[in-house]
Write a structure and sequence with these properties.
Alpha-D-Glucose-1,6-Bisphosphate, Chain A, domain 3, 7-stranded mixed β-sheet, 14 helices, 19 strands
Length: 448
């Protein structure tokens, strides 16, 4: 069954344009509320958001929808996506909602839904919500005396900070570590610096002045250059870059070089392995993770299981096969001993714990392997399915043959915007670049 509203990570789009309108948000609240209102207890939903201007509009519409079907609403204000997932469980809510377009520019927004267990909803549940969105809501409306109530939860930040700190052993401190944290003018602009400071670190902040428009703008994990420069400027030991909803993290070492999610997963996995706490016999990553990570895992007698792109697919595989470390090269790190989704702050704390225990610079601790040359380009298209074109299929098949067994080729449509990602990697850097250039050239001619 095709989807009308939900993509790979909830509902997302340009604010005030379909599907990201107040009308759709109202219907989502009514539909999801109706689906998750079962039993005689007082039902509740937790709603968090990032710092986009349109968050006010979407939040108000969702609150109206949920209260209309009899759900009480707990409003958290600006909070990271993983905090919403955690608080959904902690507050015994029937549903959790995060209003965010993650790493996208401020003009976009989105709605992510979590079940009472803190996990993102299944495809089947999302389809059920879609069916209800387009149905007559009158049968689900609460009687006047049963309309829901809405209130702000003032303790949400403190709850999440304490949760994040408790993922570390009680003896772990960051005293003496100077760190720069870039919160992307997003959801973690208050909680991340506070947590790091409470653990003893000297914290220099960036991206902590949101104005509704500057989320992810030349800052955060999608644009870490300013962070790298700041690390060098203040002679910090480490830089931490979160994205707009703080479910991603990248690190900058003391030399101002970016360390991606692949290296971070390797650091955490090896640390857990040494302590006998790594589950599943390896880690879970997506098809976009570097082949160097896969080879490094083999040196540790560990497996690298691959899934389609998207942290929800990583989490699903981890749950099905018993892994406790997974993630994406982009910085989604899922540590299922603690969280049900990617958590940038929690992942950063685990990396910092390894750094603090090592007495070595971050550049040594966090470089576990030499990545293979990897080239990634995106091709925007207006309509149709460019990958179905015979010419495109031919150049892709030819490119796979040229790379052979020493390289990989991944071509996929984005789940959040109308672009096709073309990624190649291999031992021969020149060949990798040529392969991507050839495929992109053909795709552009077809997609024009």
């Amino acid at each position: 069954m095709s989807r009308k509203y939900f993509g790979t990570d909830g509902i997302r789009g340009l604010a005030n344009s379909a599907p990201m309108t107040s009308e759709v948000a109202l219907k989502v609240g009514m539909a999801a509320g109706a689906l998750f209102t079962n039993g005689d207890h007082r039902h509740r939903v937790v709603i968090g958001k990032d710092t986009r201007l349109s968050g006010y509009m979407i939040e108000s519409a969702l609150v109206s929808g949920f209260t209309a079907v009899g759900m009480d609403v707990f409003q958290l204000g600006p909070m990271p996506t993983p905090a919403v997932a955690m608080l959904t469980r902690s507050l015994r809510a029937d549903l959790g909602v995060m209003i965010s377009a993650s790493h996208n520019p401020y003009g976009d927004n989105g709605i992510k839904l979590f079940g009472p267990d803190g996990y993102k909803l299944s495809d089947q549940t999302e389809l059920e919500i879609e069916a209800l969105i387009d149905s007559d809501p009158s049968g689900h409306l609460a009687a006047p005396q049963d309309i829901g109530r809405a209130k702000r939860i003032d303790s949400a930040q403190e709850r999440y900070i304490e949760f994040a700190k408790r993922t570390l052993s009680s003896d772990v401190r960051f005293d003496g570590l100077r760190m720069v944290v870039d919160c992307a003018n997003g959801a973690a602009y208050q909680v991340a610096p506070a947590a790091l400071w409470e653990l003893g670190a000297e914290v220099i902040t960036m991206g902590v002045d949101p104005n509704g428009f500057n989320i992810n703008e030349e800052c955060g994990s999608t644009d870490p250059q300013a962070l790298c420069q700041k690390v060098l400027e203040v002679r910090a030991d480490i830089g931490i870059a979160l994205d707009g909803d703080a479910d991603r993290v990248l690190i900058a070492d003391e030399k101002g070089r970016v360390i991606d999610g692949d290296q971070l997963m390797a650091v955490v996995a090896e640390s857990l392995l040494q302590r006998g706490r790594l589950a599943g016999g390896g880690i879970v990553a997506t098809v976009m993770s570097n082949l160097g990570l896969e080879r490094y895992m083999r040196t540790l007698d560990l497996e690298l299981a691959r899934t389609p792109v998207g942290d929800r697919y990583v989490v699903e595989y981890m749950r099905q096969h018993g892994y406790n470390v997974g993630g994406e090269q982009s910085g989604h790190i899922v540590l299922s001993d603690f969280t049900t989704t990617g958590d940038g702050l929690v992942a950063a704390l685990q990396i910092l714990a390894v750094v603090a225990a090592s007495n070595k610079p971050v550049s040594e601790v966090c470089k576990r392997f030499d990545p293979l040359p990897q080239v990634l380009q995106s091709v925007r298209y207006k309509q149709g399915q460019p990958l179905d074109d015979k010419t495109v299929r031919q150049v892709i098949d030819d490119s796979k043959s040229r790379l052979g067994s020493t390289g990989r080729l991944v071509i996929r449509p984005s789940g959040t915007e109308p672009v096709i990602r073309v990624m190649a990697e291999g031992d021969d850097e020149k060949l990798v670049g040529t392969v991507v250039k050839d495929i992109v050239s053909v795709l552009r001619s077809v997609a024009a």
